[in-house]
Amino acid sequence: MKIARTLFTAASWFVFAGALSSCAGLPYALPGERAAELPVSDGLVEFRADAVGDKAAKRIQYSDNEQRVDYALFKGAGGQKASQAEFVYMEVPYNTWTAFNYPFTIRDKVEAWNLSKGQPAAWEKPRFLSTRMGEVFLRPYQLTTLGRQCFGVSGEWDMAGEDPELRYTRILFGYFCARPGKAMSIDEMVALADKIGVRGVSEHAVDFADVVWNFHQDVAQNFKGRAGTLKAIELAQGINREAGGKMGISEFPFRYAEQYDPGGDRPDLP
């Protein structure tokens, strides 16, 4: 997936940031680690599907000086037996020497979600799709004990061209599980995967455009101090189960972003 980037270098960004520092009231300072529960109408991840409606059941966002990580839970009607989807989208700020160390497969992450952790699963072959989010991998599976038909999805975009390891700066992964006993064809799974989006990326959304000085805006607008940060993280981890049923992933907020040396040696390319 190719996304237009701001056309100035990392060096010019730091000059620009220095100029901003002389202006009172602008959120230019490095804020450190924070997290917040967002209104369900906010956040970055979109998934408008009949099975779960068009609004998230829960939204959590984490940000630090190197990354922001957006978690969204979507649930249909029917309590713990409802259809359910969870997604994580993460990105780094533009014009910084930062990329994600993300060596994981769809199966790695599916088995980490609380809904499927420890559950026996029957896996099918992965498929490569072109969706409105960009190119993604989709892999069907069944949670056999729970009687759920599901699929996992994963995508990586915007390679950091100056990173010696050529890693990516945008990651999305997650899953959708139908309600118990509901079958899904591969065509239905592909159609659902195409409904996954990110505001400001797969659809026009000025409020969520990645202007560098608004990178932390969602967290900042909903920040409730250290206690609020801990509560938000625990909710995304599934410790605080306000949404009911099994939700979350214990690794949240992941912190996979790593700084790199743009002058380092590159690996041999084919």
Topology:
Blueprint (H helix, E strand, L loop, with lengths): L9 H11 L13 E4 L7 E3 L10 E6 L4 E8 L8 E8 L6 E3 L5 H5 L10 E3 L3 E5 L2 E10 L4 E12 L8 E10 L8 H8 L2 E3 L18 H6 L2 H13 L19 E3 L11
Antiparallel strand pairs: 1-3, 2-12, 3-4, 4-5, 5-11, 6-13, 7-9, 8-9, 9-10, 10-11
Number of β-strand runs: 13
Largest sheet: 9 strands, antiparallel
Q: What's the overall geometry? A: globular
Determine the strand fraction and express it as a percent band.
25-35%
The helical percent reads 10-25%
Element order, helices and strands?
A: HEEEEEEHEEEEEHEHHE
Kindly report the average pLDDT value: 84
Total helical segments: 5
Distance between the termini: 21 Å
Oligomeric grouping of the chains:
single chain
Structural class: alpha+beta
Low-confidence stretches: 1-28
Cα radius of gyration in angstroms: 19 Å
Describe the structure in your own words:
16% of the residues lie in helices and 29% in strands. The chain is of the alpha+beta class. The strands form 3 sheets. Strands 1, 3, 4, 5, 7, 8, 9, 10 and 11 form a 9-stranded antiparallel sheet that branches. Strands 2-12 form a two-stranded antiparallel ribbon. The chain has a two-stranded antiparallel ribbon with strand order 6-13. The model is unreliable at 1-28 (pLDDT under 50).
Q: Quick summary of this structure?
A:
With 270 residues, the protein is an alpha+beta fold. Helix content is 16%, strand content 29%. The protein is globular, with a radius of gyration of 19 Å.
